[in-house]
Amino acid sequence: MNGTTLAQGQAFASRAEISKLLGGNAQSGITLASKTKAILLFKNEKELYSDYFYPKGSYDHCMYTGIGRTGHQDSLENKMYDLNTAVLSHKKQGRPLLLFDKKNGSYHFIGEYELTETHQNIQPDDNHSLRRVFVFHLKKVSDFIELIFD
After folding, report:
1. Strand partners, 40
2. pLDDT higher than 80, residue 45
3. Which of 8, 67, 68, 138 could bridge across to 30 with cysteines, CB 3.0–4.6 Å?
4. How far is CA 20 from the centre of its chain?
């Protein structure tokens, strides 16, 4: 079987490069990797959402807002609902969460994370309407991961 290893700090020039390697949507903030069982999470420098790492200066934990730029993220009408529920059930499904951070125009692999808890928050969407969003509390479990391609 073929596979690949990702290590913290490994840089990729674009989302398309990551998608070519692991599979999945090259634009979505949360995507299911089609070549592995992983769920890919992308954190951007300048985004509608206020995702952040803590404690300051570390990658130990991340507060990560669910996907969906308009409407309530917990609504079945939201086209991204299934991706949010994939994060919620990642342990049960045996799917690792892999977090990438966009800095200075390139994407850097940060590590494998697990969901420790979640809550909902009220935030404005792209249309400036208030809506419910998922906020995922993520804890880093590893600086690297060995992936086997399906």
Report:
1. 31, 98
2. no
3. 67
4. 17
